[in-house]
Every structure is written in structure tokens, then in C-alpha cells.
From TrEMBL:
Keywords: Signal. It comes from the Bacteria. This is TIGR03808 family TAT-translocated repetitive protein. Pfam families: Beta_helix. It comes from Devosia algicola. Residues 1-29 form the signal peptide. NCBIfam families: RR_plus_rpt_1. Transmembrane segments: none annotated. Residues 158-309 form the Right handed beta helix domain. InterPro entries: Beta_helix, CHP03808, PbH1, Pectin_lyas_fold, Pectin_lyase_fold/virulence.
Length: 442
């Protein structure tokens, strides 16, 4: 009797589960709009702008998800309205621009989700100017598993809040993602390759809170097509945008910097792998304040880490737990770059780093009078020409060097007057340089 009751109960629960599955499947089907059944044609190159726009407007108005058919769909510039849910067919759907204009625009909208959709440039004008997707004054916009290829840029956004995840950007003339005055971006787990000027740019017209998070992206082969002395050629570039977190990214082959902070406040750069940078791998420059650069790996760069521009108000940083190795003798893009592992100028703690194979100075504090209040402690230096170098001109501020392990080819602790080495043994000459204190270096 007990066995029969258990068996009946199992059949009853199974029937409930089957009924629930049928109901969920039916509900899902009712919430979908089939783009092909609405007259959208792919693959033949005909202008589908009117048909796609009507389907998009109907989906947003009805609260249904529009599923576009696979293949190339040729369109002019589409307008994505609020509350739109748009999907490609198994990542096989591509909206291809008919002209040089963006494939789509989002303006003053919210609650838009775009999944598994490709955005591509006109085949006859693959490097046309302008982004493939232009977004302005919008909130709660999500782009997931989308592809952007062959345009002037991937996504350009202004005054908006976006979630960009698991997307693929390639062969773009400018930047994969360019943000101006954002309301906070989440840029996670994307792949970016072969961009003309930048991977990810987060800029503001005026300095202020931004709050974006850039995490887990893979960025490679970033050129500096439009030239300049550092505004182009960077994997991740933050300008005047405060409170930004850059973490756990893999960045390889940038013409200038893997990560470049310019005039930022309270920025965190941690856990990134930075390979083959043409200039400074991780840069905190100009009027910055409050940069944390920690637990990154840098391999092959003209300079590893630079925390600079006291003359512009740049000060207050922590540089700790980084591995910096294989610094090149010079930079192919900036002849003024000096082979240094880690460099800092003001209110900075440089501690717990390991620096190896530098054909110059492994760790350097200050340049001429641009030096104030730097701690260099508990670092490990090996295979460098010079271990630790500090500015000892009369106007220099204080430096404390303690507990470092140094193996250097030419000299371990050196004093510098601008670029000239004036002491190859700071320990012996310490009485001459009152701005420097030493303790327990080996």
C-alpha cells in the first residue's frame, strides 16, 4: 500500500511538471515575434529598413521579443525605441549598413535588450566614419553576445548607462567602445581586436564621477591610426572619469598603453595582464589623484608603470604587488620614453613589486624637482642595469627606501640630477642628499 502511494505521488508530480513545461513553452512562443513572418528578408541585399523598423516598433509596443532571421539584413539607420527586446537567430543575424550612417541609434530611451545580433559596415565602405551603434541619453541598455565589425567604430555612447557583455568587436577604424559622460557602464567579458585607435575609451567633458567597471575583457592589436602622443593607441583609456574600476583584463599588443589613466580620481587598476605595450604599459598621468595599481603583470613594454605629472597636480597613488618584466631599450612610437620598470613622483607607495630585466632603472622616484613624498619598500629587483634611482636635485622632496632586495648589473642605489647619474652608491653618499633616507636594503 505504501509503495503504491509513493508511485502515485511521483506520477502526480511528474504530470504537474509536464504541464508547467507546456505552459512555459506556450507562454514563450506567445511572447515572440518572428521577423521572417513579418516580411523581413535576409541575404538578398534589398533594402529592409521599412520592414525591420515596423517589426521593431510593433515588438516594443506589444512587449514581445522580435527574432530576426539569420543572414545579412540590409538596412539604413534604424531607431531602437524604449522597452525593445531584439534577438538574432543563433548569432547568425547581421544588420548591415546600406550607407555610411550608423546601423542603429538609441536616443532618450530605456529598458532595451539586444542579444545575439551582428552590426556590420557597408561592404562597399567598410571603414566609413561613425559608429555602428550610436546611443545617447538612455538608461538600462543591455547588449549581450553581439558582434561589431568593419565600421568607423563599434559603440559610441553619450550620457547613458549600458551593460555590454560577451560581445565581439573587430576590424574597426576607431574605438570598439567610446563613452562620453556616462551614467555608469558595465563592460565585461568582451573580445576586442584590431581597432584603429582604441579598445575602450571612457571620457568626460569635465572631470567628475563616472563609476564604470571594465572587467574580464580580452583586448588585442590596438593601433594609433590618427597619431598623437598618447590619446590614441591604448587598450583602455580613462580621461577625466572618476571612480572607475579596471580589473582582470587581458591586453596584448597596444601601440601605446595597455591601460592609460589621464586626470582621474579614485581609480583602481588590478589583476590585469598587460603584454607587448609600445610605450608605458600602465599610465597614471596629469591631474590624477588616488590611483591604485595593484597585482598586475606587465611583460614587454617600453616602460612598465608610470605615475607622473606632479607639475599638473598628479599625486597620491599605491603601486603594489605588480610583476614588471622585460622592458625594451626604447619605444617605437615615443622616442622620449625611457626604459624604466616603475616610476613615480608624488605621495606614492611603491611596495611589494617584483621587477626584472630592465636595460635602465628598475624603480625610479622623481625627475629633477618633480618629486615629493615617495616610499619604495619591500620590492624585489633582478637583472636590471640600475636597481633603484631617485632624484637628488636640491628642490627634490623626500624619498624613503627600505627593505628592498636588489640585484643590478651596474649599480644598486643611484642618485640622479635630471637624467645624469651623480651617485652610483647612495649608501656611501647619503650625507650629501638630505631628501633621501635608507634602511635595510640588501
Amino acid at each position: 500500500m505504501k509503495t503504491a502511494l509513493i508511485s502515485n505521488r511521483r506520477r502526480f508530480l511528474a504530470s504537474i511538471g509536464a504541464a508547467s513545461l507546456v505552459m512555459c513553452t506556450a507562454s514563450r512562443a506567445q511572447s515572440l515575434l518572428d521577423g521572417a513572418s513579418l516580411g523581413i528578408v535576409s541575404g538578398d541585399g534589398t533594402d529592409q529598413t521599412v520592414a525591420v523598423q515596423q517589426a521593431i516598433d510593433n515588438a516594443a509596443a506589444s512587449g514581445q521579443t522580435l527574432i530576426l532571421p539569420p543572414g545579412d539584413i540590409s538596412v539604413g539607420t534604424l531607431a531602437f525605441p524604449a522597452r525593445l527586446a531584439l534577438e538574432g537567430s543563433g548569432n547568425a543575424t547581421i544588420l548591415r549598413a546600406r550607407g555610411a550612417a550608423p546601423v542603429a541609434r538609441i536616443g532618450t530611451a530605456q529598458a532595451i535588450t539586444i542579444t545575439g545580433l551582428g552590426f556590420a559596415a557597408n561592404i562597399d565602405a567598410p571603414t566609413s566614419q561613425g559608429p555602428l551603434l550610436d546611443i545617447s541619453a538612455s538608461d538600462n541598455i543591455s547588449l549581450v553576445r553581439c558582434q561589431f565589425s568593419g565600421g568607423g567604430g563599434g559603440i559610441a555612447t553619450r550620457d547613458s548607462a549600458l551593460n555590454i557583455s560577451d560581445c565581439h568587436f573587430a576590424d574597426l577604424a576607431d574605438a570598439a567602445i567610446h563613452s562620453a559622460n556616462s551614467r555608469g557602464l558595465l563592460i565585461t567579458n568582451n573580445r576586442i581586436a584590431r581597432c584603429g585607435n582604441a579598445g575602450i575609451r571612457i571620457w568626460r567633458d569635465e572631470a567628475g564621477p563616472d563609476g564604470s567597471i571594465v572587467r574580464g575583457n580580452r583586448i588585442a592589436a590596438i593601433d594609433w591610426r590618427d597619431g598623437g602622443n598618447g590619446q590614441n593607441g591604448n587598450g583602455i583609456n580613462i580621461y577625466r572619469a572618476d571612480e572607475v574600476i579596471i580589473a582582470d583584463n587581458h591586453i596584448d599588443g597596444c601601440a601605446f598603453s595597455a591601460i592609460r589613466l589621464n586626470s582621474t580620481r579614485n581609480s583602481q587598476v588590478s589583476g590585469n595582464l598587460c603584454l607587448n605595450a609600445g610605450e608605458v604599459a600602465i599610465f597614471s598621468e596629469f591631474a590624477f589623484s588616488g590611483s591604485v595599481i595593484a597585482n598586475n603583470i606587465i611583460d614587454n613594454a617600453a616602460t612598465g608603470i608610470s605615475i607622473t605629472n606632479l607639475d599638473q597636480g598628479g599625486r597620491l597613488a599605491v603601486c603594489s604587488g605588480n610583476i614588471v618584466r622585460n622592458i625594451t631599450p626604447n619605444s617605437a612610437v615615443n622616442p622620449d620614453t625611457i626604459p624604466i620598470g616603475i616610476y613615480a613622483e608624488a605621495d606614492t607607495a611603491i611596495s611589494g613589486n617584483s621587477v626584472s630585466n630592465v636595460p635602465g632603472i628598475a624603480i625610479m622616484a622623481g625627475y629633477g624637482s618633480f618629486l615629493d613624498n615617495v616610499l619604495i619598500a619591500s620590492n624585489v629587483v633582478s637583472e636590471a642595469d640600475y636597481g633603484i634611482g631617485v632624484s637628488v636635485v636640491e628642490e627634490s622632496g623626500s624619498v624613503h627606501i627600505a627593505g628592498n632586495l636588489i640585484a643590478a648589473r651596474k649599480a644598486k642605489l643611484v642618485g640622479l640630477r635630471w637624467q645624469e647619474v651623480v651617485s652610483t652608491d647612495l649608501g656611501a653618499d647619503i650625507a650629501k642628499f638630505p631628501n633621501v633616507t635608507l634602511n635595510a636594503n640588501s
